[in-house]
Amino acid sequence: MNKHRHTSRFAFLVAGWIFLSACFCVAQDLGAVTAEINVVRSEQKQGKALPDNSEVVVWLSPLDSSVAQSRTKPSRHYQMLQRNKHFKPALLVIPVGTVVEFPNKDPWFHNVFSLYQGKKFDLGLYQAGSTHSVHFDRLGASYIFCNIHPQMSAVVLAIDSEYYAISDPSGKVTLEDIPPGQYHLRVWYQGASQKALDALQRDITVTSGRRDLGVLKVTANPAAQVAHKNKYGQDYDPDGATPSY
Asked: I want to staple 154 with a disulfide (CB 3.0 to 4.6 A). Which of 7, 56, 115, 144 is the partner?
């Protein structure tokens, strides 16, 4: 009996070691992609960089179907809060087809809408403590505003990938845990024209280890900014008397 128990225990330990080794090997096969973002204004001379290179989104769309199915991530709960008359976060990146909640955490009414690009919706007037949701079933950027408070603006960017990262103020961006394979690189920045962003697209190959894409120069064009009107296409009332229904 003791001999049988010892053999079973040994077999269990061996099986555990094999499992951990396999996991370690799989993890070792994953790659990482890094880049340095350089945001410049089109009117700046000599391409002088802006102090803040943050909120540039870089993502990799798998070109191989086997890559797209090689990793499964637990479903996330996506929210864009309304707090202190601001949307938080001001930039939310999601996989296309995701449902996003818009909880009102302020002690007053809000009226959330998006009518310019991407997903068009109007959540209407809703009170403090309540929540409305939107299914973002279209690729691209949706510009989010409140019909009552003109200072409230945000972007929900729906992409066709789970492999993405957002640059920090220094311009550093790192995409971790990327399965080896072929990908299409895309970049988005709110202040850039679509033509400038299209010029940054390219196909890349990811292998195990770390790949540096170098400097990605993103030209910010003030003309690409979305005009911020209320949901009726009118200017906001400076006295705060904008219709809230």
From this structure: 144
Q: What are 203's two structure tokens?
A: 């196909």
- Cα–Cα–Cα angle for 98, 129, 91, rounded to 5 degrees: 40
Residue 76: other Cβ atoms inside 10 A: 10
Q: Could you report the per-residue pLDDT of 70-79, keeping only the tens digit for each?
A: 555 556 889 9
* Structural domain range at position 214: 31-224
Answer whether 125's CB lies under 8 Å from 111's CB: yes
Beta-ladder partners of 219 = 40
Count of Cβ atoms closer than 10 Å to residue 203 Cβ = 10
Structure tokens given for 78: 């996506």
In a domain, residue 71? The reply is: yes
Q: Do 213 and 185 touch, CB atoms closer than 8 A?
A: yes
- In the predicted structure, residue 62 carries a pLDDT above the cut 80: yes
Report the CATH number that the domain containing residue 47 is assigned in CATH.
Answer: 2.60.40.420
CA separation for the pair 66, 163 (Å, rounded): 15
- The answer to whether 194 touches 16, Cβ cutoff 8 Å, is no
115 within some domain: yes
99-135 burial code (b ≥16 CB/10 A, e <16) = ebebbbebeebbbbbbbeebbebebeebeeeeeeebe
Tell me whether residue 179 is in a domain: yes
The distance in angstroms from the start CA to the end CA of the chain is 78
Answer whether residue 237 is part of any domain: no
Q: Distance (Å, rounded) from C-alpha 245 to C-alpha 243?
A: 6
Tokens of 134: 């939107």
Task: Give the C-alpha separation, 66 to 39, whole Å.
Answer: 34
Structure tokens at 168: 């920090």
pLDDT digits 0-9 by tens, 114-128: 998 889 999 999 999
